[in-house]
Structure formats: structure tokens, C-alpha cells
Amino acid sequence: MKGEKRIILEYADKINPEKAEDYIKVGGYKGLEKARRMKPKKIIEEVKKSNLRGRGGAGFNTGMKWSFIPENAPIKYVVCNLDEGEPGTYKDRIICEKNAQALLEGMAICATAIGAEKGYIYCRGEYPYIVKLLNNAIKSAKEIGALEDFDIEVRMGAGAYVCGEETALIESIEGQRGEPRFKPPFPGVEGLWGMPTVVNNVETFACLPYILVNGAEWFASIGAPNYPGTKILTLTGDINNPTYFEVPTDYLLSDVIYELGGGIKSGRELKAVQVGGSSGAFIPKKNIDTPIDFDSMTKIGASLGSGAVFVLDETRDIVDIATRIAKFFKHESCGKCNPCREGTFRMYEMMTRINKGLGKPEDIENILVLSRVMQKASLCGLGQAAPIPIETSIKHFKSDYMAKLN
Amino acid sequence: MINLTIDGKNVTVPRGTMLLEACRLAGADIPTLCYDPELKLAGSCRMCVVEVEGRRTLAASCVTPAEEGMVVQTESEEVVEARKVILELLLARHRLDCHVCEKDGNCRLQDYCYRYGVKDSRFKGEEPHFYKDDPNPFIERDYDKCIMCTKCVRACAEITGAFAINLKNRGHEVVISTAFDGGLKDSTCVFCGQCVMVCPVGALVSKVEKGRGRDYQTEKVRTICSYCGTGCTLELKVLNDQVVGVNSVRDERLSPVNRGALCVKGRFGWDFVNSKERLTQPLVRKDGELVPVSWDEALDYTASRLKEIKERWGAGSMAVFTSARTTNEENYLAQKLARAVIGTNNVDHCARL
Amino acid sequence: MGKSFEEIIAPFKDKKGGIIEAFHALQKEYNFIPQEALKETARIFRIPEAEAYGIATFYTHFSIEKRGKYIIRMCESAPCHVAGADKVLKALESYLGIKAGETTPDGKFTLELCECVGQCQATPVITINGEPELNVTPEKIPQILSKYE
Question: Taking the complete model, does pTM exceed 0.90, yes or no?
Fold first, then answer.
């Protein structure tokens, strides 16, 4: 059995995340020092070579994302996405609570690479205590000069899952309704206040100090070659150890559940697991011997997403849970585009009907048609992903649906 | 220049051209609800989606720049399915009363449902519940017909600059609203009706025109608004020799001054045209009574009185005051009359006050 | 009390995009955004009132309706749902004598439903004025709420 591999969380609970000195004692801010001695292009090359891919859900190559920033732009921004809203996800909170300084260092490394002087952390409104923690951490890092001229400001969201989408997040920092923008232009070209902006997830930034210190090759050799490094997972549902783990990315989903997770509660059998939060696909038991990395998950029609692992035992009513998830998306749709605004609403209506035993076979057909169109025609990732849990629950557990039909 | 293939045809467009424009150049008729060439792009109705080879999702053509080598299908099976489903979703939140709707025959939603054979919606459930009475004399707001294209919000902000309306709430509950849900008369609305002009459905209609004839029944007469000297082009809707409404003319070549934008008077204040109380011939007061006379008599009378006054009191006793409701040319002629004929420099104009 | 709307908003007025921070500050003081405060915010940030209203009504943490002193938010996201959130909600409703979305007659508690609050290691979760309460069961409710009496 393989266990955890802790890189970001190595010193969890051994250092005070607010204190830059504590972090420095365990080797902190060495990566930034190194970056400052490098040419910006070299830093980007190094990050590219490490093959670090975005930990927020889309899995885009981080160095590549940075390379889109036009060098000659007068103002550039670094933005950290701490709006983790995927139900069952709390890994970014854990990173802040255990190793906030690594996030700050990662942002400063990015700023050095792209030539930015200002960074923002957009923290979800559900974490007011993390806003406090981060402000203290920034103060401490500033006091000892670790961040030099790089300023970081923490902004707090106000209860909108859609603001986890990078352009909606930017709109929200700008003080607007958090509605996603159409792309292009991408934030790398026209982001915050129209300036080139890098938006990365907390976990992505927190990997950077270790990549700079230990080298791109070292990072690239950990876990799955196509999506190297570690991933912090948060386990919820019918699992014996409902907690967080940092594992190499080639770790098997089955081991997550049965080794680290300690197996299913009450000795029951696994029915399904949903990875990546509420926007993730339901994965039936037969597919769990799959590594958790981005591409392997995609191959089985799922996604790693945020790294939430929601475990359901054999007694669970999947239709009821899918209905609950449909309500989530109805509640969180921003309302800008037709397929998502109306689609999430009607999806929830149809699911509620079925869940109450009032559904007809054509409801399932209509859900599948709607699901297809939402995935293809919605403006942003929210509307495109919203039908996936519903669709996959029908695909793998159709008999559960049939049993509930009127 | 960029070369791409649209429905099998090769098209060349300048860099920066959006696919919507490129598709139209290729002869494809792309449906749009939220797109308006004069307003900021929204990219939100998704009716204009097209299939671009190699892409995971459909592209909203109004906000997708054309790229070299793109291969585009504008009516593929996937595209048509998406448009049909979007129309069905909109129908489910739209109160369908075309038989009494002002916009019947001139409604985008109706047109596209017809085009794609969308008779009914598979997604009907909760009915629309967004209607709220707004007692004002000009604009009827029936958000039970609103399809959330947001063109009214953009027109209010970008054309008129009144900023009276915006979006309220989010998700399915999102609705167009003034601050604190008040009526338009308590908002910064100036009743220009630009929102009515851009509304693609019957959600915003003119109360003044209501019930007086559908757009397709009326004859259109393009003219210049007579209210002031700005010279806005508008189109009168005429039915049985009566003016029954005003349309915007948005084509810049036909409406170079205002490109369709009007003010409250031009858009809603044409009722007087058919008024029985309207003066249709000159009147001269005789023995304390106003009596209809011929134009010749009226003009002779005026000229002789002006002459008398000038002879008795001098030209300086007279002044000419002109109106913003007359044209530049008429204003010019009036001052000419004052200076050259009457012989006074006492000339003024209401726009100076 | 005592601080004017303008004083509450002042620290954020020069912050680009600071209107959301200003709304947070107003809510901290009043637990909702009073109409006059919203008008004042629009004026200070130089945006139309309709737009400020649109921003305030977009985010679920902001309320334009008067609320209680303590805002109880019950997470009903999937992980809390399978851990028995429904039962906790019923217990909360019966203990407080109100339905979700309502405020107790004494103005002390407002009960709201919410989505994931990111404390999923200990479901079901409620928050009271932002502070999470973990592993909530119907039995624990009187004791939890007694802290706020």
C-alpha cells in the first residue's frame, strides 16, 4: 500500500501559517529568492517544464498560461482563486490553514515571472476567518521583507459559486455582478481592469516554491507524468476517514477510498463515487481502479476537478442525491446565458418530479437532450458541467431512475 | 486577412471579424436574440451558436473571432438541436399570447420558433411570474414575456445614458428591474423608449400604440420628427390614413442624425396628429372671435400690421423669437426676415434660454 | 450604532471595485443592506442605483430585507445532505418556530439555506454569523443556540 506524499502539507500543524519566520525555518521563501535571480522567461520555462497543471479544475499547463501574458503591458496582475465552492471541497482552506506562506510565495514567484506588482486573493465569503489569517500572513511576510515590493490584497466574495470561474471572479473583484465574460479575450490578455492577468488556484500557487527549489525535473517525476505532482483530496460521504490527504497524482481512486479513506462506513459496499465536487461525474464501482490524475479521470468520463471525493454506499438513493445536486446548480447559475439559466431550473424541476415518483419516461429523455445542449452551448464551465452529474447518474444507474418513474 | 470555410464556402475576412459577420458574408442566416450591432456584446442568448471543427463546445458566433483555417457549420444537427432547445427553454418562461400580442408578426422568438418548427416546449413547468404593473403612460413592461437578452439594459445605458434599469437577482430569478423595483416614473428613466426599440419580443411595448394595429398591417412613412430642430428620422405607422404608431429607423444611411434613437416626444407624442382640436387653417381674431380665414388673408393681415407697428413705433419696437421646433433653415429665414425686412437686430431663440 | 452610512463605507471608497467590501461592512453593522445605505453606496461609488441594486441582489450573502441578529445558515449541499441535513433543518425550524428564509418574531435569528461552506470533514454543518458549527445533530441544536441567547 502506498501512503500519502506530502509536499505542500509537509509541515502541517508544525508551523504557524501566519508567521513568515516559521515558514523560513523550514526552507520557505528560498524558491522566490531563486526566482528573483532568474530571468523572467527562465522562470516561465522552468514552470512549463515541471508540467504543473492547474489544480482548480481545468488542468491547463501553468507555465503555458503565464507565457500568454504580453511582456510589454504596463500593468499586470496576479490573482489567486480561493473561491473553492465545489461542495465537498476544502483543500484550499487547508492549504491556507497549514501553509499560507507557500501560497504567498507562489504568487510572488508568478509576479516575478510575469512582471506584476500587485496580487489579489479572492477568498470566498464563507471563509471570513481565512481572510483574517491571510491578512496576518501577508503582514508578517511584508514585515520581514520576504515579498519585497509585491503587494497582495485579500478580497472577499459574498456567496456565489460562479465566481470560481476566473472571469466571473475578475468581475467580482471589480465590484460587479459575478457574471462570466465570454472568451476570448482571455484574462492573460485582458483580465482585471482590462489588464493582463494570471488567475491560478491556491494549490497551483502553493506548488511553485517547491518546484523552484527542487527543480522542474524533480516535480515532473512525481506521480502521473501527464499531470505530475501531488493533489490534495478531501473525502466526504460514506467513508470511514472523512478528512484530507495529499497524494501523488498516480494514486488509484480505489486506494483513496479503501486505503487512506479506510473503506466504506458500516462495512457496506461502494455504490458510486463523485470526484471533483458537485460538477463531477458519478463513477460506478467498476471504474475505481483508475489513477486520480486529470487525464486518467477524463478517460473514464470523469474529472479530477477540485479533488473532492464524495463516496456513496450501496444504500444511497442516487436519484435523490442527483436531485439535490440539480438544486445546487439552479441556485448557483448566474443567469446570464439561456442554456444555463433556464436549463438548470428546468433540470431541477424534472429531477424533482422523478424523485417524487411523478416522473415519466420522457422526462429522462428530455433530461438527456437538455444535458447535451447545456454542455455544448452554455457560456461558461458552470452551465457546461452542471448536467454532467445528472447525465452520468442516469448512465450508470438507470435502473434506479426506472424504479422511481410513475 | 483571414481565410475560413463556412458551410463549405471559402470566405476571406479582415482580422478581428466575428464569426457572425463572416457567416453572414457566406450567406448564412444566423439567428440572434441578444446581439445588436450598436450595443456592447453579451454573447449570452446562445442562439447564434455554430459548430467549429475541432472544438469541444459550440461557439457563439457573435463573440468568436474568425481564425485562419476555421471550418464552420452553421446549421449542423448539433447546432439545430441547441437552437431548438434554447427556444423551448425560452417558451417555457414566456407567456404565449401571440393572438393579442402587439409584437405578433414582428417577434424574433415567434420567427425562430417558426423557422425551427418549435411548436411547444418539452420543458414546461413553473409558469413565468415576473409581471409587475408599472403605471406610466408610455411603456408597458411585461416581463412574463422577457427572454433576458438584456438589450434594454444596454440600450438604456449605452444609447441614452439613463441607467434606469439593470439586472436583479440571479439564475432563473434574474429579472430586469429599476433600483428597488419601483416604477419607471420613479427611476432615472426619461421615457425615450430605446428599450422598446431594441426589445426582440413583446416584453416592452408602447402603451400609446397598443391595440391600434399590428406592425404588418400598417403602411410605413419615413419622415423627420417635427418636434424640434434636431431632425430625427422616424417612421410613422399608418393605418386607414391615421397615424397609429412610430417606429425607429436604425439604418444609419436612412437615419443619419439619430440612428433610430428618439426621445419621449418623438416616440410617444404623436397622438395630436389625429386630434380633432388640431388647427388646420389660419385664424384671425375679428370682433373678439377667432375666425378661420384663407392663408392669403392671414398673411396680408400680418404684413400690414407689422408695417403699421414699424411706422408708428419704429423697427426697434419689434423682436423675433424663434423656436427649437423649427429647423435650422427656418431659423435662418426668420432672422433674415427680422434684419432685412423688419429691420431689427432683436432676434432670439428659445434654445438660448 | 452611531456610525453613519458614509462613515461605514468610507474606508473602501477609494478601493477600486470596493463596493462589495462596502456592502460587507454595512451588513456587519446591520445584518442587511438598508435601502438608504444602498443609495448612499451607489452615490459614493458613482454608479447608478439600479446597478448597485443589481450587485447587492446577485450575491446570496447580501440581503436587502431586514434580518435577525444572528444569521443561521444551513448547508444543504450533497455531502451535508447525505449526512442528514434535512433532519437538522427540520429540528432547527421546529426549535425556532420559523421556516427557512424567515426571522424569529423577536428578531434574534434568521434561518437560511445555503450551499457548501467548506467544512465538509464534519457534516452536517451550519454557520452562525459566519462561524461554523460542525457535526450538527438535531439533539445538539438547543445547546448550540443557547450560546446566542
Answer: yes
Candidate from A84, A93, A278 with C-beta closest to C77: A278
Of B119, B123, B87, the residue nearest B201 (C-alpha): B87
**Does a cis peptide bond (omega within 30 degrees of 0) precede residue C79?**
no
> What pLDDT, in 10s, does the model give residues A339-382?
999 999 999 999 999 999 999 999 999 999 999 999 999 999 99
Q: Note whether B81 contacts A372, CB cutoff 8 Å.
A: yes
In the predicted model, what is the mean pLDDT of residues B121-132?
A: 95
Q: Which of B278, B296, B319 is the last residue of a domain?
A: B278
Count of Cβ atoms closer than 10 Å to residue A192 Cβ: 25
Query: Do C46 and C86 sit in the same domain of this protein?
Result: no
- The residue range of the domain holding C30 is 5-58
Tell me, yes or no, whether C42 and C81 share the same domain. no
Residue B301: domain span: 283-349
Distances (CA, A) of B167 to A177, A178, A337, B153: 9, 12, 13, 8
| A274 interface with C at CB cutoff 8 Å | yes
Domain final residue, candidates C21, C37, C58: C58
B58–A350: do the CB atoms touch at under 8 Å? Answer: no
Pair C30, C92 in one domain = no
Residue in chain A closest to C73 (alpha carbons) equals: A126
Give the distance from residue A91's alpha carbon to the nearest chain C alpha carbon, in angstroms.
9
Give the residue among B259, B215, B209 at the shortest CA–CA distance from B233.
Answer: B259
Cβ pair B123:A346 closer than 8 A: yes
pLDDT digits (tens, 9 = 90+) for A45-64: 999 999 999 998 889 999 99
Contact state of B188 with C48 under an 8 Å Cβ cutoff: yes
Q: Judge whether B238 lies within some domain.
A: yes
Average pLDDT (A244-253) is 97
pLDDT at A232: 98
Would you say residue B32 lies in a domain? yes
Residue B353 reports pLDDT greater than 80: no
Q: Quick check: is B344 in a domain?
A: yes
Q: Same structural domain for residues C77 and C118?
A: yes
Rounded mean pLDDT, A187-212? 98
Mean pLDDT of B117-141: 96
Give the whole-angstrom CA distance, residue A381 versus residue A398.
26
Chain A (319-338) residues lying within 8 Å, Cβ to Cβ, of chain C: 321, 324-325, 327-328, 331-332, 334
Tell me: the pLDDT tens digits for A10-41?
999 999 999 999 999 999 999 999 999 999 99
> Cell numbers at residue B118, please?
418549435
Whether residue B267 is contained in a domain is answered as: yes
Residues A85, A86, A92, A98, CA torsion sign: positive
> What is the grid cell recorded at B269?
407624442
Q: Which amino acid is at A133?
A: L
Residue C79: give its domain's CATH number: 3.40.30.10
Assigned domain for C47 exists? yes
Give chain C's domain count.
2
User: A-contacting residues of C 20-59, CB under 8 Å?
Assistant: 20-21, 23-24, 45, 54-55, 58-59
